[in-house]
């Protein structure tokens, strides 16, 4: 998938554990884990907004577009 989730990078930079972020954002640790691994089909803007508030970052710090290599 061309959308890469860099949430683990931001958690490490901010020295925040996933459990703490989940609590602050108001989502379950399981849903946060699915988001961290990129196994979700979408994320609500309200959830993304809360994540950015807690981590003091921009959505682009968390989500990245990497085109698939179709040259093979």
UniProtKB/TrEMBL annotation:
Name of the protein: Cro/Cl family transcriptional regulator
Gene3D superfamilies associated with the record: lambda repressor-like DNA-binding domains
GO molecular function, one term: DNA binding
Taxonomy of the source species: Bacteria, Pseudomonadati, Pseudomonadota, Gammaproteobacteria, Alteromonadales
Annotated HTH cro/C1-type domain residues: 10-62
SMART domains: HTH_XRE
Superkingdom of this protein's organism: Bacteria
Listed InterPro entries: Cro/C1-type_HTH, Lambda_DNA-bd_dom_sf
A Pfam family: HTH_26
């Amino acid at each position: 998938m061309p959308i890469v989730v860099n949430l683990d990078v931001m958690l490490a930079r901010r020295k925040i554990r996933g459990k703490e972020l989940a609590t602050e954002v108001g989502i379950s640790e399981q849903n946060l884990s699915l988001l961290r691994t990129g196994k979700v089909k979408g994320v609500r803007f309200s959830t993304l907004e809360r994540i950015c508030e807690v981590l003091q970052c921009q959505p682009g710090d968390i989500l990245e577009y990497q085109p698939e290599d179709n040259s093979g």
